[in-house]
């Protein structure tokens, strides 16, 4: 029977059309082989990634990779690509590894960013900006439905196309000299007496050891690299927001205004949002505090959309789900490794917004890593500078969140805090 190597399979589906026994079938990210397979080998020879083999024929892809880099970055989201870019600009040799076969996919984000946060690093480009935002409206839930609290004008922001934006960041890193590899998950760290000395990477189905002076873990909320280094990255359910989002098409709304709904009935411990992505479409989603969720976030989202006629007319063309960490980690540095972005809990605890913080943390970690390679500073400088610039604010927002239990988040005081944290109030 034909064997499938999941680490190599890119799920193109071509093998299914070749099989004369109809033994192959393709799900979204899974290829299966039934007992009808007779090892004819037609699919094996046609597989472009070398993911299929038979006992008699086992072709392998052969990709080259240096055994040493100054810096290895795990994860090519905004935090990882920014870290790689700034480390390379600082003169370091850099490897950026991404476990998925396409950078930027799947999207796990509402895709909003303030103009100030983007312009700190890049000019907005039509290719990755879906819409320009100039206003925000805030609603709260009462016994009769949703009531407008306040609307604000003048706070500029953007709704991104994250698939394109993330790839743009990785391309900028590559232009700076970073070696980027995709579908190449890190499988473990190389440790010597508790100090990180590199990573093991699965490349073309084969594990390679890559030594490095610095490893930067940007592998998301599910961060394994942090755990491998001995850092406790476990999230208590009260510090996690379970999110679901549709890209709705065929709706009528102002494409320049974001909408926020403080909705304890529809999103316990969280809120719902409508982020326009151009004429007739918007990201519509919500987040539910994990310890308060009595059913999947997707169920809450469907009921929320059905309750608003302007949204219920739309059709979902994309579904996004994910988990947002609301607690910044205390420990983000250990010998040889730094954690950035969601892996470090670098998300605003009041709003769950993470793109600006991920980019800032990545840029800072890359600069510190390059300085470390040059012998100019320790890795601890990353934590010190992070705390001075952003960490104190995140801890303050976390304390404020704790002061307002979910049932008290419809009052004037919390609404003001929340609106300010979104950037709508200057």
Please explain how this structure is put together:
- With 426 residues, the protein is α+β, with helices and mostly antiparallel strands.
- It has three domains: 3-53, Alpha-Beta Plaits (2-Layer Sandwich), CATH 3.30.70.20; 68-107 and 163-235 and 326-406, 3-Layer(bba) Sandwich (FAD/NAD(P)-binding domain); 131-157 and 237-325, D-Amino Acid Oxidase, subunit A, domain 2 (D-Amino Acid Oxidase, Chain A, domain 2, 2-Layer Sandwich), CATH 3.30.9.10.
- It has helices spanning 14-18, 42-46, 78-89, 115-119, 162-175, 225-228, 297-306, 309-312, 355-373, 380-403, 412-422; strands spanning 3-4, 24-26, 31-33, 52-53, 68-74, 94-97, 112-114, 129-142, 145-160, 179-181, 186-192, 195-203, 206-217, 240-249, 257-262, 272-276, 281-289, 315-325, 333-334, 337-339.
- Strands 5, 6, 10, 11, 12, 13, 19 and 20 form an eight-stranded mixed sheet that branches.
- Helix 3 (78-89) links the parallel strand 5 and strand 6.
- The N and C termini lie far apart (64 Å).
- 45% of the residues are buried.
Set out the fold topology.
Elements: E1 3-4, H1 14-18, E2 24-26, E3 31-33, H2 42-46, E4 52-53, E5 68-74, H3 78-89, E6 94-97, E7 112-114, H4 115-119, E8 129-142, E9 145-160, H5 162-175, E10 179-181, E11 186-192, E12 195-203, E13 206-217, H6 225-228, E14 240-249, E15 257-262, E16 272-276, E17 281-289, H7 297-306, H8 309-312, E18 315-325, E19 333-334, E20 337-339, H9 355-373, H10 380-403, H11 412-422
Parallel strand pairs: 5-6, 5-13, 6-10, 8-15, 13-20
Antiparallel strand pairs: 1-4, 2-3, 7-9, 8-9, 11-12, 12-13, 14-17, 14-18, 15-16, 16-17, 19-20
């Amino acid at each position: 029977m034909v064997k499938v190597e999941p680490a190599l399979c890119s799920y193109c589906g071509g093998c299914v059309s070749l099989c004369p026994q109809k033994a192959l079938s393709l799900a979204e990210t899974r290829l299966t082989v039934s007992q009808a397979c007779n090892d004819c080998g037609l699919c094996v020879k046609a597989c472009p990634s070398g993911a299929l083999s038979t006992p008699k024929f086992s072709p392998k892809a052969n990709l080259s990779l240096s055994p040493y880099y100054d810096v290895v970055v795990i994860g090519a989201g905004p935090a990882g690509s920014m870290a790689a870019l700034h480390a390379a600009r600082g003169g370091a040799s850099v490897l950026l590894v991404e476990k998925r076969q396409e950078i930027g996919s799947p999207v796990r984000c509402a895709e909003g960013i303030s103009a100030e946060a983007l312009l700190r690093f890049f000019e907005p480009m039509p290719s990755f900006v879906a819409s320009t935002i100039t206003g925000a409206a805030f609603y709260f839930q009462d016994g009769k439905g949703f009531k407008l609290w306040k609307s604000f004008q003048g706070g500029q922001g953007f709704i991104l196309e994250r698939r394109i934006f993330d790839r743009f960041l990785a391309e900028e890193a590559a232009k700076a000299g970073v070696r980027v590899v995709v579908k190449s998950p890190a499988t473990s760290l190389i440790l010597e007496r508790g100090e990180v000395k590199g990573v093991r990477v699965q490349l073309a189905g084969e594990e390679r050891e890559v030594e490095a002076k610095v490893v930067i873990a940007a592998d998301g909320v599910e961060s394994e690299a942090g755990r491998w280094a001995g850092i406790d990255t476990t999230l208590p359910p009260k510090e996690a927001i379970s999110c679901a989002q549709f890209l709705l098409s065929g709706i009528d709304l102002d494409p320049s205004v974001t909408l926020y709904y403080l909705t304890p009935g529809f999103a316990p411990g969280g809120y719902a949002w409508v982020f326009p992505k151009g004429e007739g479409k918007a990201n519509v989603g919500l987040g539910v505090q994990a310890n308060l969720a009595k059913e999947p976030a997707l169920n809450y989202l469907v009921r929320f959309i059905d309750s608003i006629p302007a949204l219920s007319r739309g059709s979902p063309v994309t579904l996004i789900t994910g988990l947002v960490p609301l607690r910044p980690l205390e420990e983000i540095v250990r010998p040889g490794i730094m954690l950035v972005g969601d892996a470090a809990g670098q998300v605003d605890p009041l709003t769950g917004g993470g793109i600006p913080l991920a980019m800032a943390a990545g840029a800072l970690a890359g600069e510190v890593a390059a300085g470390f390679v040059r012998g100019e500073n320790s890795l601890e400088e990353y934590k010190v500078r992070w705390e001075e610039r952003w960490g104190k604010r995140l801890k303050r927002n976390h304390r404020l969140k704790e002061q307002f239990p979910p049932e008290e988040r419809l009052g004037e005081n919390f609404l003001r805090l929340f609106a300010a944290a979104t950037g709508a109030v200057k």
